[in-house]
Amino acid sequence: MTVTSETAAAPAPAGARQDFGGHRNSPVPTPRMISTRLRELRKRRGLMIALVVVNIGIPTIFLLIRLIAHAVAPKSYGPAGGYDIYSAMSAGVMYIFGFIVAAALGCTAGSIDLTEGMFRHMVVTGRSRLAIYFARIPAGLAIIWSMVAAGFLIVCAVCVFAAPTSINYQGVNIPAGLSLSGLENWAAGHAETAVGCLPYDGPENIAIPCPEQGQNQGPVGQKIGGPPGAITNPTPAQLHALAIQVAKENYSFYKKLFLYPSDWLMIRTGLWIELEATIGFVVGLGLGSLLGQRTIAVVMMIVLEVIITPIMSRNVISHFINGERAVVGLATDHLEPGGLPLAFGGGGNGPLQNPASLLVPETRTVAICVIVGWLVAWTAVGAWRMATRDC
């Protein structure tokens, strides 16, 4: 067959030209590209095992040991659930280690093509480099979100269903879930304990020992160390009435204490932990893409989380306070739910305290802007490096 000039110059099919010039050059990743990136990450078995162990294995093993210990020796080991266990697992384990493993996943996703020599082969397909980079974000988040959610659901389930049956409030064990009238009835039946141990700001000046502590707490209604005044011994009727008044004053605080975390606190905590994991992955992805390798990027992310963030969050440096406020860890700490202890410890905050009071001062609006800025900036850095890297 003779090839003529008209045959050689014949245009390619319209569909093929449109696919290469339009769809292939689009920076928006297709669902197929996202699923491909997802499979690439899931094939890294060592990394997936590490994610499962940290996000699901550690909480599960810890809670399982506590369940067994409490079942075998309930007097020596407390319940496996409850508010204290929930707050320690959420702010001390899920939050910190969730960030680290999310950062490791992000650094791996950002450098995997270079370390495995696949970058050139991906570029010659004609796909947009930006689309290749952006496809890694939903793929990685799908993995880390699901694992963090699974681990957090296990923590919530155990802390709710294995919670203790009484609340320790001001050193006094009080039945849980009482209404106002129920607390009043309890106080009336334990008048000396209620009056002697629970705080009260009324005008009465009565000295009642606290049976729970075996010592005199000081006159009711009078600050310890103040002027002595006239201390009287109440009659049984006066003590009964005063106990009811003490119960009324303490009820607003009593009902805020958790045998187990409230539904609203668990929802806010879950979103907060997922946000921290999202930051870890996105920043790690950009840093891994920028450096082109994983090890140094992971080390830098760990240093950011366990060294720089605690230092910058707790210590006010007067001439560098705006620089401290630009640290993303401080911003996420300011978004922490008020019913949790401060991340990295050192707070002792309970359900009635706000952990943000121990941090470098920063408004919630500034904290949100800092988080958005980090996510956008590191996404832009990673995408820029992908688009400009030599094959």
Report a brief summary of the structure:
This protein is mainly alpha-helical.
Q: Give the beta-strand count.
A: 4
Largest β sheet strand count, sense and barrel closure: 2 strands, antiparallel
Q: In terms of structural class, how would the helical and strand content be classed?
A: mainly alpha
Mean pLDDT: 81
Q: Percent of residues in beta strands?
A: under 5%
The largest sheet has its strands arranged as: 1-2
Number of domains: 2
Q: Any idea what the radius of gyration is? A: 29 Å
Contiguous low-pLDDT stretches (5 residues minimum) are 1-22, 214-231
Question: How would you portray this structure in words?
Answer:
The chain is mainly α and 391 residues long. The protein has two domains: 20-165 and 260-312, no CATH class; 168-254, no CATH class. It has helices at residues 5-8, 14-23, 31-42, 45-72, 83-115, 119-123, 129-161, 180-189, 191-197, 236-254, 263-291, 295-314, 321-325, 328-334, 364-388, and strands at residues 166-169, 172-175, 206-210, 215-220. The strands form two sheets. It has a two-stranded antiparallel ribbon with strand order 1-2. The protein has a two-stranded antiparallel ribbon with strand order 3-4. Helix 5 runs antiparallel to helix 7, helix 8 packs antiparallel against helix 10 (236-254) and helix 12 (295-314) crosses helix 14. The longest helix is centred in the first third of the chain and has 33 residues, at 83-115. The model is unreliable at 1-22 and 214-231 (pLDDT under 50).
